[in-house]
Write a structure and sequence with these properties.
Elements (H helix, E strand, L loop, with lengths): L1 H45 L9 H15 L3 H10 L1
Length: about 80
C-alpha cells in the first residue's frame, strides 16, 4: 500500500517539475526579450535615431557573437561560475 502512495506522489512531483521547467523557459524568454528591447532603445537614444528597429539585426548578430566568445562551452561556464 505504501509503495503505491509513493508511486503516486513521485508522479505528481514529476508533473510539477515539468510545469515549473516550462514556466521557467517562458519567463526566461520574456526576460531576454525585454533586455533586448531595452538595449535597442538605448542604442537608438544614444545615436539620436527615432526608429529603434534599425538596430535590431546588427545588435542581434553582435549578441550572438559575444555569447559564443564569453562562454565557449558549458564546462567553461560552470568552472567560471564556481570560481568567481
Amino acid at each position: 500500500m505504501s509503495s503505491q502512495v509513493l508511486y503516486y506522489v513521485g508522479n505528481f512531483l514529476q508533473g510539477i517539475e515539468v510545469v515549473i521547467a516550462i514556466l521557467w523557459f517562458i519567463t526566461l524568454f520574456f526576460k531576454l526579450c525585454i533586455y533586448f528591447y531595452a538595449t535597442l532603445l538605448g542604442f537608438a537614444n544614444v545615436f539620436h535615431i527615432k526608429d529603434y528597429k534599425l538596430f535590431s539585426f546588427p545588435v542581434a548578430l553582435i549578441m550572438i557573437a559575444l555569447s559564443l566568445i564569453v562562454y565557449p562551452s558549458v564546462s567553461y561556464q560552470k568552472s567560471l561560475d564556481t570560481t568567481t
